[in-house]
Amino acid sequence: MPESTNRYPKSAATKGLTTVALLKAQHDSGNDYLEMFMPFVVDAIQASRRNDFDIAGIQQLVENRHGLSIPLDTLQTLLRRAAKRGIVRREAGRYFIGDDVPTMSKIPAQRKSVERQINALADSLISFASDLEFRIDNEEDAKALLFGFLSENQTQLLLEEEESYQYELDTGPLTLEQMRLVARFVTERCLRDPLLSEYLNNVVEGFVLQTALLLRDVAAASRSFKGLQVYFDSLMLFAALGFTGEAAKIAILELMALLRNADALTRVFDVTISEMRAIFGVYEMHLATPEGKERLYPTDLTRHMLTKRFTPADIRQEIALLEHNLKKIGVEIVNTPKRVPEHTYDEMALAKRLKRPSERGDEPRVVHDIDCIAAILTYRRGNTYTSLDEARAIFVTNSGHVVRSVTSWYTDSGLRGTPPIIHQFSLSNAAWLKKPASAAKLKQHELVALCAAALRPSRDTWDKFLRHLRSLEQSGAISSDEAVAIVVSDLTDQTLAEVEVSDPDLDAETLTEVVERVKASYKEEAKASIEVIRTEADQHVTAAKLEVANAVAEKNNAEASRAQIISAVEQRIGRIAHAVSSTIAGLLAMAVVLGVLILFPKVFDVISPRIKWLGMGLAGVASVLTILGLLYGIHVGQIRGRIKSIVQRRLRRWLISDEE
């Protein structure tokens, strides 16, 4: 079972985590960036139980008690505020306890609340490590792991190679295994638990608040950027467009929105657009064949292209829409200004610093970076700016190599003030300090990217693995399709990261085991997928049969209901026809009888002439009916039946539209 052999001082870790979380609490209380350090100064003075101090002594007290290294100029500003409130008084260059010093500091009570949060994180880390058979002896060791991971790496997501688009970070005081343990703990435990996520976020944002001490004028940290033009590098723009994962996209878009809220302008030079098109062109060429896909380095950008099954036609479409998509996310495209030699300085020296051992000075990547730096210096026209807020323009990248190279070239050239370049996370911290409420989740999303970087294998390990994969393909052990599938598998990343901890040399046998594990996982996934498909198919068939049965039942029910309705209507029609025919037959019978009666002489003599004619007519009808009866056998019953049949047919046609 691995043990925690952390090299970070335990007491410093506990103090550091507590202090940064306390800073977050002070900030949440509404204190400005200078005032939030005041309680720590007052608490240190109270705890010392001394009456007089010099400024260096107070600085040491604060650092010993809280782990905060407050610069002397910032501390002087704090002490001037304290003197105005009567907390201290200054005499002959020394400070004495004042009449209005609080009798009790608020810090100890707040510290207890914060320590409960830190202890909860430490206990959860111990439990998580135990599940992975990694032993952490006590809470102090757990806190040391957390502090080492967050303090050393919270702004060190540095790209090792521009072509790789791969985050590579410094392990600092932690071993590789410890770093990956904490990264897994953050992503798999903390971010899924609302309380732990809140506690962790307090610590992460507290680290950023602590950087306010490095500002030249900490009291003015909340001011805007005053129209600062921020020009983005291509890698950050690929992330903003969603080509390197959702977490990176959200973080970059939040940063852009935050910059705009702080009165900065988010822009890109046209030479960067050309570089992005060239990078897309590389993918367009390689995605056309399986061999080309294998040669692509397995970065987040590559994995996105492969898992989304991008084709060369898709890439051409992305190239065509590039400018439109950048404008849609608020990035303005600007023409690169013409060089002014007296402002751009020694570009040959800069090229030497930017190129890598395997590159020439005229590499497209190097030329692009020099063009962007020259453009920023041209905008500044030789002016020196001591503050980022006043710097007019700056180039931002997430390449640590480029930032270090340009910054060292700038200072070695005898230039002072704000360099023409800044790292993404340094800019993010500066922007967040100005408008923290505008990007509440920004630091957490950057932490997700940090953890993802920690859980990836190193560049050297990937190079070894790819060479071994090609040798297996050439020997016929795996097909080209299998090679591509293995390269883009998340399990490959995870497995390589695991084995490089236990076996840094990574011989052929170990690498073959990695390939076999990934292939086995594909087989298991395939079986599971087949079972899922089969189960879903059975469910669909069962559902279809049930739907058919229901439809048949509904049809039968409808037909039965229709038959019942028709039967009821037929019965009603029969009754109506019978009544009508009976009435007509009765009237005819009455006419015959009445006609015969009227013809009797006695009756005939007493009735009026009109009645006589009626009687004669009725008698005629009776005679006709009698003759028809004698000749054709027609009688009243037949007439009645005929009338009934006619009435039934007419009523059925009227009441039942689909007469059968």
Textual characterization of the structure:
There is one protein chain. With 660 residues, the chain is mainly α. It contains 27 helices and ten strands. The protein has helices spanning 10-28, 38-48, 55-66, 72-84, 107-131, 139-153, 176-188, 194-210, 234-240, 246-261, 270-286, 290-295, 300-307, 312-328, 341-344, 347-354, 364-380, 400-412, 424-434, 442-454, 459-474, 480-488, 490-502, 508-599, 601-606, 609-632, 636-655, and strands at residues 52-53, 88-91, 94-97, 158-159, 167-168, 229-232, 265-269, 332-334, 393-397, 421-423. It has a five-stranded parallel sheet, with helices on both faces. A three-stranded antiparallel sheet has the order 1-3-2. β2 (88-91) and β3 form a beta hairpin. α1 (10-28) crosses α8 (194-210) and α16 (347-354) packs across α17. The longest helix has 92 residues, at 508-599. The protein is elongated, with a radius of gyration of 46 Å. The chain starts with 9 loop residues before the first helix and ends in a 5-residue tail after the last helix. Mean pLDDT is 81; it is low at 1-10 and 155-171.
Largest sheet: 5 strands, parallel
Distance between the termini: 88 Å
Mean pLDDT: 81
Spatial sequence of strands, sheet with the most strands: 8-7-6-9-10
Instruction: Note the beta-strand portion.
Output: 5-15%
Our count of helices gives: 27
- Given as residue ranges, the uncertain stretches (5+ residues, pLDDT < 50) are 1-10, 155-171
Fraction of residues in helix: 55-70%
Rounded radius of gyration (Å) = 46 Å
Instruction: Give the overall form.
Output: elongated
Total number of beta strands: 10
Q: What structural category do the secondary elements indicate?
A: mainly alpha
